[in-house]
Design goal:
262 residues
Amino acid sequence: MSAAPAPLPSLLAVFAHPDDESLVAGGVLAQHAASGARTSVLTTTWAPDSHRAAELGEAVRILGAGRPRMLGYADARVPESAPGAPRFLDVPLDEAVGRLVGHLRDFRPDIVVTHDAYGGLTGHPDHVHTHRTTLLAVHAAGLEHHAPESGPPWQPRALYLATHPHSGVGDLGPLLTRVGKAVRSVPEEHVTAAVDVRPWLERKWSALLAHRSEVERPCPLPGVLSRLPAEDRERIIATEYFTRLDARPDGGPGQRRARLEA
């Protein structure tokens, strides 16, 4: 009898808004969880008692990512997302990095996934700021003299940036342009992992549908996708693209991968 395959690396996804995790990394989250790996999602905006936090909780449950972690800051464009809390963009950088370091040391992931430097195709300012903050936190979490009150240092092995190559935009570009959104993609050589998530597509789509308030609106991407024929929608969301940054000093350059590796 052959031995069961080893679990994939543990994975912490750090994104700006509820639904980002399902849109750009729902497939790999489901893939890693299905293998027996530990997975979790941290969201930098929206209050834990908001309706979108409840939707996020359902989505991460579907993806196998446990209980959502939320920093609880306000969305840059939706002040009512976290009444009484500052916008994530306005929080002192040291505070935001320190809180992320605490979560990294608590969960101790092999891999961290976040937005790319563009903030994804649409370039939302919360996405861009989450990218910057996460890069700093991944480095700082491994330094023993940085925020020792947050626990023992932990250095993830790799950081993956969710992105889109020019060739991978496809039908998504015109759809985004039609609803007034930007389209920012990267050259092919920037993509180091192109993950075929069709085996987990049903779970990914179910997680997206859990974000009901976004599905019901015509302009957010979940709403745009929900109004497409299934065949067109599946073609758009069946591949997830990433740029790998080696977080540990012993990391080395890699070729394009078919999955996320530590």
